[in-house]
Amino acid sequence: MQVQLTDRQQHILWATVRHYIATAEPVGSKALVDEYKLGMSSATIRSIMGVLEESGLLYQPHTSSGRVPSDSGYRIYVDRLIKPSATLIKKAGKLLQESFAQKYQALESLLLQRAATILATLSGCISLITIPQSSTDTLRHLQLVQVGAGRVMLIVVTDDYETNSVQVKVPITLEAEDDLEIINELQIVSNFLNNQLRGQNLTALSTLDWSQLDEEFQRYSYFLTETMMELTKIKSSHHTTQIMISGVSQVLCQPEFSEIQQVQTIMRMLELEQEQLWRLICEEPDLEDAKKSKVTVRIGAENPLEPIRSCSLISSTYHNGCMSGSVGVLGPTRLDYESAIAVVSAAADYLSEACIA
């Protein structure tokens, strides 16, 4: 959001968000005068708050009440007005280190659950840590094998020696050919695929330059690309979507969750619809976002999942050898972003270095 703010306006927005996070009550100019040394009169603060409201960064829940931050106000607060707490990053790292020093070092799920508990305690949010998955599907070998009339099997071996296969029906033009001729063609195409794709990701087949192969073999391109897409779906469905969750009860006691229906919706997602949440927190950030910060912050309506569109989700990816997972916290939009970003960052750093195999 390209909203230009003066230093004074930024200071008032910062103070308003901070005060609302602390109190959960709409903020008036008098509260800011009393609590913060802003060097401005109450009338000046009211005027600036009015400008911020016109810009869509604050709003009044009731005509006679003070103002509260909007999702856009929180976004500017997170992007421009705060920095993660270095002190809390060190504290979180130390607690995680102590946790992973326990004798249960080989029990991955237990260690991650302990980490989730620490994360929830430090952030005051619901903590979410995914079980690590293989972070690469790098191709080691591919082979096309005829398995029957009009049917071919694609066998793929990845760099971790995991083998996957899928059968497909070949085009009619191939069905009409002599079996020996098809076997020879399949070997030629297999050799081409290995030469072009070895060491690359499974998805590389979809962008393969088939013009490098003789024209007579290019008829394989369409059905092989479709085959690889099917194989990728199969592999994705085998991923473990288990999420270690902690801190639910303390967060759902917050005033934002006073309606029982809203609580039930969030609980249903956490208990029964974890796959959707897993896909969201494991989603890699855009390249431009990754350059700015390794922590992704989704505020309110920025969340694509309906049950958490009134929440903020802060997440990061951790990489442990050839494995990767995600760590995050979920809470109301009125949360302590400095602390939450700091502990997520610290947890991602530590899980990337810890031995949790």
Automatic annotation (TrEMBL):
GO terms for molecular function: DNA binding. This is Heat-inducible transcription repressor HrcA. NCBIfam families: hrcA. GO terms for biological process: negative regulation of DNA-templated transcription. Residues 111-341 form the Heat-inducible transcription repressor HrcA C-terminal domain. The keyword Transcription applies. Belongs to the HrcA family. InterPro entries: GAF-like_dom_sf (IPR029016), HrcA (IPR002571), HrcA_C (IPR021153), WH-like_DNA-bd_sf (IPR036388), WH_DNA-bd_sf (IPR036390), WHTH_transcript_rep_HrcA_IDD (IPR023120). It comes from the Bacteria. Coiled coil: none annotated. The keyword Transcription applies. Negative regulator of class I heat shock genes (grpE-dnaK-dnaJ and groELS operons). Prevents heat-shock induction of these operons. SUPFAM superfamilies: GAF domain-like, Winged helix' DNA-binding domain. Keywords: Repressor, Stress response, Transcription, Transcription regulation. It comes from Richelia intracellularis HH01. The gene is hrcA.
